[in-house]
Design a protein that fits this description.
- It is built from nine helices and 16 strands.
Length: 334
């Protein structure tokens, strides 16, 4: 991470991180979660040159579109983080670090079955409150009436937050920078709902966060009469789940220059999604293989990563009755 960097991967940042180091200076921290096209975020950076501005976005397309504009704009006080809001707030941010937080028009997930996927719910709002400094401002905007009702209810029961208005929301904010999405809604007569709340000085307990992953990488050493070619030929895409972890083994690739195999893997667990490779590589001794996380992509050794490595080792072991586990270091045997 150099001073010239404008964007970062939340999965690769230290957990927790001192976000001031991304800027090389200490300054008030202003954050927008879900910056989309970046119009609002860029205007924030222009209006607050003395603040550190962080934009958080899960969409690679949106991040790339804004990132390519930054060198031309010369906004040295703006950084972008590719991450889900939950991961960033849970693991990257320390308590009481944000001075202003904006969440503009989050996905309402209008179908009843998808409501649980909404960003704004009691648990996330309590997490947000724990990351705001006393006196910090929280601004939320939505053009979906049903979502506004839900947000109003959840804000009202969130400890540590107080409303800056006498009504649950307002329908206009003087001097506000209007996003492109917002302008389109206004042009067709859709009412926008704006929530302006503030963090008070009362202590709050954040929601329970899944424990941070350890730093020990999972690995399994196998003794097998099979060749790498035979292992690769036996591969079939597979998926499995354990409790709240879901793993998919998508495809396998053979590296003839490094004498190994790589399985493209998708891991989904609470707050964290990863797309690492699981390597099967030749050990120093004949007929021995090591199953481990490939280092490309900076994978985190989460519970899901340990489970995925163990499942791949189990699969290789099942291919031949003479295959033996020589050594195993995964979460299951800690």
């Amino acid at each position: 991470m150099t001073p010239q960097s404008f964007s970062y991967e939340g999965i690769r940042l230290p957990w927790p991180a001192d976000l001031a180091t991304l800027f090389g200076r200490t300054a008030p921290l202003i954050m927008e979660i879900g910056f989309g096209g970046g119009h609002f975020l860029i205007d924030l950076a222009r209006k607050h040159p003395d603040a550190n501005i962080v934009g958080v976005e899960i969409s690679h397309h949106c991040l790339w579109d804004v990132e390519k504009q930054l060198p031309r704009l010369g906004l040295t006080n703006l950084r972008l983080i590719h991450s889900s809001a939950q991961l960033l707030l849970s693991y990257v941010c320390v308590p009481a670090v944000i001075d202003q937080l904006y969440i503009n028009f989050p996905d309402p997930f209008p179908k009843k079955a998808h409501e649980r996927r909404r960003l704004l719910n009691p648990e996330t709002l309590r997490l947000i409150a724990s990351r705001l400094k006393p006196g910090a401002q929280l601004t939320i905007a939505t053009d979906i009436a049903a979502y506004a009702e839900s947000i109003a209810h959840d804000l009202a029961v969130t400890p540590g937050l107080v409303n800056r208005h006498n009504s649950p929301w307002v329908t206009a904010v003087p001097g506000r920078t209007v996003t492109r999405y917002e302008r389109k809604a206004q042009q067709i007569g859709v009412t926008c709902h704006y929530f302006e709340w503030e963090r008070d000085s009362s202590p709050i307990t954040p929601p329970t966060i899944p424990p941070l992953p350890g730093e020990t990488m999972p690995n399994v050493v196998l003794q097998s009469p099979l060749t790498l070619d035979e292992i690769a030929q036996a591969f079939q895409p597979a998926e499995f789940a354990h409790e709240d972890i879901h793993v998919r083994l998508l495809s396998i690739y053979q590296n003839r220059y490094d004498n190994g195999l790589l399985i493209d893997t998708y891991i989904d667990e609470p707050l964290i999604e990863q797309r690492p490779g699981i390597a099967i590589v030749s050990h120093d001794e004949p007929h021995r293989y090591v199953v481990r996380l490939a280092l490309m992509g900076y994978p985190r050794p989460t519970r899901g990563a340990h489970l995925a490595v163990r499942k791949v080792a189990d699969w290789v072991s099942s291919l031949h009755p003479e295959t033996q586990v020589i050594h195993q270091h995964t979460a299951s045997n800690k």
